[in-house]
Amino acid sequence: MPKPSKPRLPNLERTLIVLKPDAIKRGIIGEILSRFEKAGLKIVAMKMVWIDKDLAGKHYDEDLAKRRGEHVRQYNIDFITQGPTVVAVLEGIGAIENVRKMVGDTEPKSAKPGTIRGDYSHVSYDYCNKQGVVTKNIIHASSDTDFASREIALWFAIDEIHDYKRSDEDVMF
User: Fold this and answer.
1) Do residues 116 and 139 make contact, with C-beta atoms less than 8 angstroms apart?
2) Which one from 59, 71, 122, 140 is the annotated catalytic residue?
3) Domain with 125 in it
């Protein structure tokens, strides 16, 4: 089996997405993944996992607690461990920025129609905070290159990431 290589083109990036338990329970895995593929992003790694609190705590690290509060971090840890998730590495030109645009604002209420969160979720931070529940927003996407590198290494071993050529790559790149 060939070893995965580094991205071949300038600005070719890899980023991590996590389809959260709410996406899995709603049966919209294929719809979400097809959006990324139709946009020309390549899935180079993917698996379904029911993560434990240890891995969830590493994913939702102290940085989240600093930005949003420890209670929000704990809500996210509790939520992501309630059911299976689908985790994938996407590759493409400017993948991190493009995936973030497709995903939409973190707060579903603010996500524009046409984005994943805008089309599949709608609650506000205010509502969730008053209810004492996590904001169910369907998907996580790495925010920048540093987070993408850290998150990909957290979720995938190097031999789980594959390099291959899509049939449409010559047209897209």
Assistant:
1) yes
2) 140
3) 12-160
Beta bridge partners of 16: 89
The yes-or-no answer on residue 162 being catalytic is no
Closest residue by Cα to residue 76 from 106, 47, 109: 106
pLDDT digits (tens, 9 = 90+) for 60-88: 887 766 777 788 888 889 999 999 999 99
Residue 119 lies in a domain: yes
Q: Tokens 């949003």 label which residue?
A: 68
pTM of the model: 0.89
User: What CATH number should be reported for the domain holding residue 48?
Assistant: 3.30.70.141
